[in-house]
Amino acid sequence: MAGAIIPISKAATVAYSDRDLALIRRTVAADTNNDEFNLFIHMARHFGLDPLRKQIYAFVFSKDDAKKRRMSVIVGIDGLRTIAARAGDYRPDEDEPEYEVNTEQKGETNPLGLVKATVRVWKHAYGDWHRITGSAYWEELAPIKEEWAWSDATRRKQPTGKRILDPRSNWAKMPRVMLAKCAEAIALRKGWPDDLSNVYETSEIDRARMIDLLPSEAAEQGAAAERLQKLGLQKDTIPLTFDEQGTIEFVPLGQAADRCMAFLLEKRDEPSLIRQWATRNRLGLREFWAKAPNDALAVKKEIEKATA
């Protein structure tokens, strides 16, 4: 039948020569131990991806702490596209990514003032092509960290109290590309959940790598707020937490700015605590921005002032 989509079979198991395995171990999976390496190769074969072509990676978290040490297998954007293409019902969008920019957010932690990137992909189902959209937000994904500098007084490095965009990452060199890759990965997971659920793209975990969180752990922080939001609570509320345990409160929209300002005033002498608070509340603050941008901007400026 004209225009029909012909399913493509799953990829055959990839076979690696001994030399290939040795090269992968020295390069792509250099931080892995024997068990982690075996698991990584198993996952690469399962997905039918080639580590040497940078389609799939092994990242080890807390590698110097035996109790916390964990490995996560991460798929590159080319690997995600490859998996989706094998299904036979995928095609990329012809348009460029869309970006939302706010010049007031330009600074050392956001050189272009990016708010979010949106990417669309297409999936064929029920005789027609359907558009699937993914959006990624700078505040949630950019690897922003606390700056450390050498102190002659203490003879060691210590925090300066300043937040910076990780200069070693590609986020500082090509911020649009990195945010768009995250958005595309989100769209691909939405469209092909059977193949890509819990599969992360490398750009999505740059912040998690920086703070030594597994992608699943970082995602769970955001999912907790989303689960509570679905319990039928009023839509004119903002999910926020003000204690160290992370207890989420649904604050009425009209009170959100006052609650945030009161917290920031109380903790004004503890910039590191305020940074942690802002990270824990990134989803709530993003929602606050969507519903009350002027109030949210005032809170954002106060956060930046307190942590400068």
Automatic annotation (TrEMBL):
GO terms for molecular function: DNA binding. InterPro entries: Phage_lambda_Bet, RecT_fam. One of its GO terms (biological process) is DNA recombination. Pfam families: RecT. This is Phage recombination protein Bet. It comes from freshwater sediment metagenome.
